[in-house]
Amino acid sequence: MRYLSLWLLFIVSFTLHAQDYFPKNDGVKQSFKNFTAIQNATIYLSATQKIENATLLIKENKIVEVGTGIVLPKGAEIIDAKGKTIYPSFIELYSEFGINKPTARPNGNFTPQYDTNREGYYWNDHIKPEYNAYENIGYEVKNAASLREIGFGAVVSHHNDGVIAGTGLFWTLNDKASDAKRILKEKVSQHFTFSKSKFSKQSYPSSLMGSMALIRQVFHDAKWYAQGSSNSKDFSLEAFNKNKNLLQIFNAGDKLNALRADKLGDEFGVKYLIKGSGNEFERLDEIKKTNATFIIPINFPEAYDVTDPYLAQQVSVSDLKFWNQAPFNLKILAENNVSFVISATDLKDTKSFLSNLKKAVLYGLPKEKALQALTENPAKLLNQFETVGSLAKGKLANFIITSGDLFEDKSEIMENWVQGERNIITKLNPTDIRGNYELTVNNLKFDLKIDGEISKFEAKAVKDSITYGTKIQFNDPWINLVIKNQDTTHANFVRLSGTWGNQTMQGKAVLENGNETTWTAIKKETKSEGDKKEDKKDAPKVPNMYIITYPNLAFGAAEKPKQETLLFKNVTVWTGEKEGIVKEVDVLIQNGKISKMGKNLPINEAKVIDGTGKHLTAGIIDEHSHIAISNGVNEGGQNSSAEVTIEDVVNSEDINIYRNLAGGVTSANLLHGSANPIGGRAAFIKLKWGYAPDEMLVKDAPKYIKFALGENVKQSNWGDFARNRFPQSRMGVEQVYEDYFTRAIEYKNEWDAYKIGKNKNKVMPRFDIEMEVLGEILAKKRFITCHSYVQSEINMLMKLAERYQFKIQTFTHILEGYKLADKMSAHGVAGSTFADWWAYKYEVNDAIPYNAAIMMNEGVTVSINSDDAEMSRRLNQEAAKTVKYGNVTEEEAWNFVTLNPAKILQMDQRIGSIKVGKDADVVLWSDSPLSIYTRAEKTLVDGIIFYDLEKQTENLATIQKERAELINSLLDAKNKGMKTQLPKKKENGHYHCDTLGEYCSASHYKYN
With a threshold of 0.85, does the pTM exceed it? Predict the structure, then answer.
């Protein structure tokens, strides 16, 4: 038994000191840290469990007991927290705290970089899953203190750089520990963004759609690599596969990008934790459908300084509304059971975090939901709930002590304990010196009033009804006062320093002239309760939230428009069919279709629209448009971008959708730009203003891809620095096509051999999105729309297509089409051209306005397109020009923007003419649709009225009223001392074929 006792003693001794094997030369080695008991507090064990008059007992870094009636160990340090509240400390899931960032790449070298600089890693520098944050950290004492002051005790840190940015670590904000103790988990998360690395010049991706395509290809490559199919080592793909079991965090930002991130995740079976931007309420139904958890920053916009009425005009209606609506976002998400955590990221000043948090609660976010989103939810997402996220025996002693209810206006965080280490922010029981005093300085008497918050006193000295500017500093028991004289020409100050005690302040004074004297301030007797006149600040008021519209900007509807049964009576109908133009007939719209057409149709339950003297046509179809695209129309980072698709980046919030509807446009073929010979895939949409991107896409429409010829693809006008990407000549453009189609055939053959078992090694080929798309062209499942100008190149591409046994579907622009219209007709290619654009660059010099008519007369299917957000609003007038230039009939001219583009897009069985059974995409015009005086009065898509001229006056009045009300609210906010920001002009530019990068500058901001 004696030996057993000695053995147990040895084991205990060894356990206590098992990790303590470093020599200590700066003091004694033994630690005598005892128990600490915080008593008499209200303790929130979790967001939903609270105990009153409770004790929290800790030792070293752990919670030993929490509750009531706890028997304290002998010698425990006792802290009285009567009247205080204890909460679990907050957890931040999205930060770059402590990350040692590399040196940014130098500026000045504008030559694009197309290949990676790394060996043994993925081919794209912006894919960096091998980056580990825990290997690149330096604990930041100052920033840690800032985060602790707003309640955080532990954070996930990562480097927010690159499309795949590597892993994050989870560690505490414990100044007194080493990283070995701070780090709770070295690899806890893998991070994604839609943005390139700031530390690489590699050009690809140069657009949002490029980033999405790149992420897809990484997933395919990682799967292929994991099966042992690669002959080379790739450290990036190895790391990516190892990181798959970590929490996957996607920095999406905007609400539409959040939907895009979720879409990517669904494709590959990944449920991302999505970092939003605070505007999720604007697309709530779609956000709910993701079933994702969101990281929500509470960086509410500051009020705009709209004092100057001219500058105020720069602020869009959507920005004015967002200022009002943003604080309601968390309330709305909570009410709709959207899972979220709250973050301090994106704040200019972390000190605004608590005030914004309290504002969110004031605006309706339940307190328990707020606390859950800061503690329990993040801990569970990290699989760290056994360690942090609530207060329970055995968990880390990470907690905050507040002066009262954390979410009330005057409550403040007083202490933040991290791993048992006490961090005092303000004294737990501070001295309250507020009151009225009789101040005597140099035989002069003043009335001194001290008020404000205990954490920040305010002082005011008055003599003979004159108020003197007074500043106060108090650090118990030391006090400093500075009193400014009333001389407006020369500022003089009296400086008082001394101590506080027994309701009296006294000490030394330095007068304006430098002489020294003494001073005293004796506290006056407090009036009885009945005589007190309390200075009550007005309770914070919650403003009315402006209604969320679809979309949430000017001209949005309070509800998504719905299908109606409509009967157009006595209208002139441009059928676009063999019936031609029919006068004084009725057209019934029902269930989104053209149901009946004839004389004297019965009304039944239909809403009647009088068409007397008016014209009804099929909606205009823009075969070549660049509206409604987010963050880049070109993916010009390499000479082929077949892997990207505009369908990924449809922007339902583009005001140009509404403007096009006002011009009678009902659908548009959204094309990639012309930065490279093989561009991205197209998206065919219906202009359903207010609907989500996926609801606008016509998913069963034939699939198209953009090719391009000419100056843009050989970078003629890109500047002298852009001379390192092939091709640089028109001859080279042809070789790009030859190379890619040859590779596509080899790719297909390799996969065919693998599938039928002829591959001897049974090694699965690499899945290549780009080659898959080119294979669709060869299989006649995807169709080419080619940007073109010069006759020789147009001829070249037709011959090349014939060699590879497919045909070009459409030449767009095609301004030299009149030179080879006979060859185009023989090939079977359509021409989508401009009415009269000319000489805007060298290769357009031979353009003529008779081009459309000449091609039509040779049997080419011709349409007139816009390629411009402004021109698309007036395509009816562009079509009318062909009557003048070429003597085409009015019906033929109208078909150039309706039936013919429908044929070109192989959608004429559904749209493009007025025929029973076709989609009810129709427009009611005030006059002939080809007249310059006509106006679109009603524009319908799928039987839904998306534009109504009758309501336009009402809409404009509503916008003006909202704008005036919001500006008055902003002026009131400034008068109340709220922080303001200067008005900002909202840039919402127009893309064209040659627009490079994600943003463009041309803007119409007033009604955005």
Answer: yes
